[in-house]
Amino acid sequence: MSRILNGIVAVCPNLGIGKDGKLPWHPIRLSNEFAHFRKMTATPSVAGKTNVVIMGRKTWFSIPEKNRPLKGRINIVLSREYKVPPAGAHYLAADFSSALTLVDTELAEQADQVWVIGGSSLYKVIFFLLCLKVFSTLVHYIIFIFFFRFPGVPKELQEENGIQYKFEVYENI
After folding, report:
1. pTM of the full structure
2. Among 119, 131, 121, 124, which Cα is nearest to 4's?
3. What residue stretches are annotated with the DHFR domain (predicted)?
4. CB atoms within 10 A of CB 151
5. 5-171: which CATH topology?
6. pLDDT tens profile 89-132
7. Which candidate in 33, 92, 100, 122 is catalytic?
8. Is residue 59 scored above 50 in pLDDT?
9. Would you call 78 a catalytic residue per the annotation?
């Protein structure tokens, strides 16, 4: 079955997404940006279905334990090392292809959109090969660029705790 496959990422101007399990702008918390992430990844397009988030092992462990698993979403963690899902994760897959197979078989009746949420090696796979849409937050946005607009994604420059950012959507057509 063909599902909507999306990527979502927040980056700093040099395209960094994290270091040592922390976001580049740590310790500053961007609550509105987190709310945007939650809304985008948790809101299914089909009533009664649940979105899936796929992430690497390091991304899973970078999420504070009190926030794992990400609520309202089916959490799949990728790891070649683990034999069972890490505590709190719903599912474990050895690689991205296995995760998609899991979504289309065991989770077929309940899964809606699939969201890739990190880390860098997983982004490399989906951005260049598979993803139809990439939702990006450019934190501390400097250059004004026009990209594809997606309904429900604010186009205005956002500011929070003295840091500016902008939500963008890139579409592979």
Report:
1. 0.80
2. 131
3. 4-173
4. 4
5. Dihydrofolate Reductase, subunit A (3.40.430)
6. 999 999 999 999 999 999 999 999 999 999 988 887 776 665 55
7. 33
8. yes
9. no
